[in-house]
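Lab channel / #folding
Pinned by the channel admin:
"Please post every new chain as: sequence first, then the structure tokens as a reply. Keep commentary short and put observations after the output so the thread stays searchable."

First post following the new format, from NK:
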Amino acid sequence: MNIAAGQQLPLWSARTAEAQWHVRRSSRARRLAVRVFHDGAVEVVVPERARPREVQLFVARHLDWIGRQRRRVSLLATDFPPDRLELQAIGESWSCHALGSGMPARRLLREMAPMSTGGMLELDTGADGSVLRTALLAWLSARARSAFAPRLASLASGLGCAYRGLQIRSQRTRWGSCSTRGTISLNLCLLFQRPEVVQYLMVHELAHLKHMNHGSRFWELVGQYEPRWCDFDRELTRGWKEVPGWLLLALRERGARPVQE
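Reply from TO:
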């Protein structure tokens, strides 16, 4: 019996019986491969004719490596609640002050002494961790929208193109996208990248309004506005290292599945 795409199978080991991995069947895959994402999720890419037993044996041989990678990722999530949020993309630095259960009713965080370059956030650290992380996600999403929207509009005007709308997303592996209907989506995690890299990503997605592919004409257009696009693209590939571990954990808690562009 072939494995269905997206099927969840228990790891073939009593030591990791509580864990699961995501199986992605690929017509292009010639061999089995395993990847541990920056949020700790495990994906196994398998050829179409791979059988469950074959996959289980493959993962069993790589359990030690998977365990090491997952432990490394888990350590990243210990920085919660954060002491500071460095939003490189918009030049803001926010100090975070824990108040325990001293926040006003039904408020998990609030801005104190906001400034053009940042300010202070008061956090109700008496709240459940996942609930507080969700509140911080919402706050970051609002910061991203207020900062990214005018910049995206300005770049679109320069490229001579019009997009339908802007969405701020919280995805685990995709930095941005452009739908066939003209909606631009940007990941709130871009807040932790350098401004030059974020601008490249915006130009990249806007260029898809004219070329909905990654062909030569698409890259020529991108290159007209971002001559260093290749450098920025490589930096963005490594950009997840700039995202706080607690935020990666929050994205995982939301249940977003890995998405490959």
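NK: Confidence is low (pLDDT under 50) at residues 1-19, 256-261.
TO: also worth noting, The helical segments are 52-61, 63-76, 129-159, 195-207, 216-225, 229-237, 245-253.
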